[in-house]
Amino acid sequence: SMQCFPSLVLALSSLLGALALLQLSLYLRVPSRYGKHEERLCRPRGRLPARCAWFLQELPSFLVPALLLALRSPPRLEPLGCRLLCCLFCWHYFYRTFIYPFFTRGRPFPLQLLFFGTLFCIYNGFLQGYYLIYCAEYPNDWCTDIRFTSGLLLFLLGMGINIHSDLLLRQLRKPGEITYKIPQGGLFTYVSGANYFGEIVEWFGFAIATWSLPAFAFAFFTLCCIGPRAYHHHRYYLKTFTDYPKSRKALIPFVF
């Protein structure tokens, strides 16, 4: 059966951190080519409907940890804290794979970005799942540790913000519409990237609850990947809508 190799966890986590910095350098000035930023850049040739693309991209993040768990002998997670942490990760990606795609009203998704997104989900799904299922060691009372409880609260808060913000964005469009409008309500009152803010809070909460290098590397990657996108969304709204609220920040309420 598979064993834990700490050097592999360290290498994969370090590479994830390096990929985060690469993302930041690539997309800090120029937004990635999909959604509202696609029109101003050259259009990719191959695209898939948004629902299909999101389903295919996110699926490995749910399936890979499930497969790793099935391959473990005996197939169990101990203690309870470790089991709950693995469930949190899979819970997020169950939503992103089996619920979110079937309600999204986004534009067709470029195949090139889908390919790289799917590769990342396989990679990160393996890293987080492998660490939690084969390597993580927690005390039996980890569920009462301040790191677990505070991280869990942040994770739930972030996931709630993310799901609620996605709902508000969907309600901006009627079925078949592709025009962009000013998001209203919820945390969008304060920031342009409320959905991104929620996901960043969610994964930093997960990192605190897990207190592991792989989880912190993933949270850092999330910040470097979707943080700049929130910034570019903010600039897009300011340029496109003359009545866009000037008090809104890009990502962090009252700060940035």
Describe the protein in words.
The model has no long low-confidence stretch (mean pLDDT 89). This protein has helices at 6-27, 50-71, 80-98, 111-135, 146-170, 194-210, 213-240; strands at 47-48, 109-110. It has 256 residues and is an all-alpha fold. Helix 1 runs parallel beside helix 7 (213-240) and helix 2 runs parallel beside helix 4. The protein is built from seven helices and two strands. A two-stranded antiparallel ribbon has the order 1-2. The protein is globular. The longest helix is centred in the last third of the chain and has 28 residues, at 213-240. It is 62% helix and 2% strand. It has one domain (6-240).
Task: Outline the secondary-structure elements.
Layout: H1 6-27, E1 47-48, H2 50-71, H3 80-98, E2 109-110, H4 111-135, H5 146-170, H6 194-210, H7 213-240
Antiparallel strand pairs: 1-2
Helix pairs in contact: 1-4, 1-7, 2-3, 2-4, 3-4, 5-6, 6-7
InterPro entries: 3-oxo-5-alpha-steroid_4-DH, 3-oxo-5_a-steroid_4-DH_C, SRD5A/TECR
Enzyme class: oxidoreductase
Organism: Hemiprocne comata
Please tag this protein with its features.
256 residues; mainly alpha; two-stranded antiparallel ribbon; 7 helices; oxidoreductase; 3-oxo-5-alpha-steroid_4-DH; sexual differentiation; differentiation
